[in-house]
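Appendix B. Extra example for self-study. Work through it before the problem class; the solution is given directly after the inputs so you can check yourself.
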Amino acid sequence: MRTKTKTVTLQLNVHKVTLGTKLLRNRTLILMCMPAIIFFIVFNYIPMPGAYIAFTDFNYNKGIFGSRFVGFKNFEFLFNSGKLWQLTRNTVLYNLAFIFLGNALQVIIALMLNSILSKTFRKVSQTLLFLPYFISAVLVGFMVYALFNYDYGFINGVLKNLGQDPISFYSKAGVWPVIIIVANLWQSTGYGSIVYFAALCGIDQSLIEAARIDGANGAQVIRYILLPSLKSTAIILILFSLGGIMKGNFGLFYNIVGTANANLQPMTDIIELYVYRTLINQFNFPYSTAAGLYQSIFGFIIVNIANAVVRKIDPEYALF
Amino acid sequence: MKQHDSSMVAIKTISYIFIGLFAIFCLIPFLMMVSGSFSSEEVIITKGLWILPRQFSTEAYKLAFSSPKLLLGSYALTIILTVCGTSIGLFLISMTGYALQRRDFFLRNKISFFIYFTTLFSGGLAPTYLWMTKYLHLKDNYLAVFLPLLMSPWLIFLMKNFIKSIPFEITESGKIDGAGDFRIFVSLILPTLKPALATVGLFLALSYWNEWYNAMLYLSNKSYYPLQYFLYRIINMANYLKQSTAGAQVTVGNLPSNTLKMATAVLATGPIVFLYPFVQKYFISGMTIGAVKG
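Solution. Structure tokens for the complete assembly:
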């Protein structure tokens, strides 16, 4: 009995000493990480407990933990009003469109760039394709407005020139999913195609030459060599994007449709817009926090599922 | 080998046409903005926008520079934010990235996950807003715009992946010479990091230059705003004036003209677009190194 206790304490001591020396030996590296650790504590970790606001009837003067606890009342309201369902549906459907149309278009663009032999043409077109990636969401929203507004919009100008009646796009909810999806593709396709293009450039050229000698034509090379080689990249990129399916692109939606146009809301409202609008315009902390927490928790579950699937396919690419 | 391959010819033709059309599609909104800014206000209202200026006029730019104080102040602010944010951010990001890729650093996985976790879960906008305004008192403080963009998990891991490709022997040779970890980082690692610094630096610079979101959340009572938020305010001026109490005295004549809005858009975006063909290759390397693995 006595000896046993002795060995345990001994082991503990050994452990303590090693941890201490380890910390001492790595003290500079720990210090070098300190600014980042403090940064993420201040801007990300400290606000996390604030999600408790979602369970209170938050009163600004009483503060977060001085406000009355109301249980799931705020969630009940969001759920019963149907708002939560509408927001989730819109967020998820937009993301599905962005992800699948986006990746399909990126693969097509990468394959086409790959078959273009003129270096100048490829460089110039790539430069133009990436250009939209570099501008702010504010300008994207303004460009959409300049294209579609009723008074002087580009599209309506063309329609008028053709003798047609102008269309009041900003009062027609149905066209906005198309416009928003096209705007998203416009901004991200060129840049997103880089990964696929790089994967194509990495293919062993002798493989393609061997296929050509065996009599494969251009279409067959694409069908049996190029496309299969993009498969794993595509699956992993798509899975990770699906992990973020509850997260919306606030900048894009806010600048294109804003928060004031109630006409468009059934088709264009996403979780981020609601969270922002209830907080900034209505100063309603509980509803805003509840919607945000709902998004965070579901997003967390989904990203874990996506990561588990990636890990099963190829543990090398798992994020955590 | 030289047999006729009609499918190859077809694929090439379609590729040239499709890529060409897509490139034009990407370019048109830019052409429309620039030509709109060089058109006269009347022709835009009567005939709408076009991809070439109709009734060429530099009136909008003269107007934008007629009382240049706000515009130039916003320019100066944005340049200061971008230069300081990029250089400080780069230093902190590369320092963290270096420590996190050191395989003899026993906390590297724990700290990496600590940073990565912030992309998985967040307290949400309202608690963050409350924390920033009520407790940190950053409302109407430029730090509210400057600080949040300094670091991001994505940029830290991008940098970490870049540094991983540097041979560990460099660190070891420094250790043998008796240099501390910080000395090794500053005098041995940093000089070899130029392409990585260029790539990460450009992402940082872009996020500072295009910043409008935090400015919208936290700045309301300032003379000067970051350029993109300055642009946002000009574009949405009508709404602003309606919302503010002073709105009653404002007449339609005081509202910014459409051409002025477009000229401001061109001025706010011009520098980054002109710079971009020169830095394109760094963005490509960032995408190919950092995209799949975080």
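Self-check: Chain B touches chain A through 103 residues (CB under 8 Å). If your reasoning did not lead you there, revisit section 3.
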